Amino acid sequence: MNESVFFQDLGSMEYGEAWQFQETLLQHNTNIKSALAKGEQAGETRHHLLFCEHPPVFTLGKSGKAEHILVSQDELARRNIAFYPTNRGGDITFHGPEQVVGYPILDLERFFTDIGKYLRSLEDVIILTLADYGLKGERSQGETGVWLNPESKLRARKICAMGVRCSRWVTMHGFALNVNTDLDYFNLIIPCGIQGKQVTSMQRELGYKVPADEVKTRLKVHFETVFNCTLISHQA
């Protein structure tokens, strides 16, 4: 069954504000599901896909280690980099300008109840988008996200990080695709807690600045294909 997903591009938004917005949408859906479980009339859950970019921020997942930030809190403040411990999976990552961040808030009970499949599906969206630019995105065994040359110890580099949360089969958080991202920020952390592997961007790989709106359009097309859904533009 083809599901409708309400799409919003939030533009540049402070991380905490975007996180709270996701929590509000998730809570609305989980409240509906809780009511339905009690036999009450509550309507239907609603799917969302949010795109945004954030001012420079490091976010730490539930399983992450604070020591994977390689500079002090004072140094973060001096560099004007925010920091948030979060409730998503995964370890430490960076969000910043010229990075496309995608937050799907989906009721997986209307798609499939399999978190592993959900993560693989998000990876598929990124892999298909990169292929449009002649880049071969791949999976790295045991490491969520999308990589280039993951089997090479010397050349493996991550281009898209992922971390999600799921409550009552409703998802939040999502993926961060490095488009024209300033990669120097990643030198201040151990990205995703993985030692000795590089981080890259579409710009670095292709040798030119990639139009972010074009990347977003391609991501939306592949999201519709992979999740068998229709995106409906929605204004807040």
Keywords:
236 residues; alpha/beta; 9-stranded mixed sheet; 3-stranded mixed sheet; 28% helix
Note down, in words, how this protein is organized.
- By secondary structure, the chain is an alpha/beta fold.
- The chain has a single domain (3-233), classed as BirA Bifunctional Protein, domain 2.
- The chain has helices at 15-37, 73-78, 115-131, 202-206, 212-227, and strands at residues 3-12, 47-53, 57-60, 82-85, 92-95, 99-105, 138-140, 143-148, 157-167, 170-178, 198-199, 229-233.
- The strands form 2 sheets. Strands 1, 2, 6, 7, 8, 9, 10, 11 and 12 form a 9-stranded mixed beta sheet that branches. A 3-stranded mixed beta sheet has the order 4-3-5, with no helix packed on it.
- Helix 3 crosses helix 5.
- It is globular, with a radius of gyration of 18 Å.
- The two termini are 26 Å apart.
- The mean pLDDT is 94.
Terminal CA distance reads 26 Å
Q: Output mean pLDDT.
A: 94
SSE order, one letter for each helix or strand: EHEEHEEEHEEEEEHHE
Indicate the CATH topology.
BirA Bifunctional Protein, domain 2
Query: Do you know the CATH architecture?
Result: 2-Layer Sandwich
Please work out how many helical segments DSSP would assign.
Answer: 5
Strand content: 25-35%
Question: In total, how many domains does the architecture comprise?
Answer: 1
The CATH superfamily is known as Bira Bifunctional Protein, Domain 2
Q: What's the total count of β strands?
A: 12
The best one-word shape is: globular
* Structural class by secondary-structure content: alpha/beta
Biggest β-sheet strands, sense, barrel: 9 strands, mixed
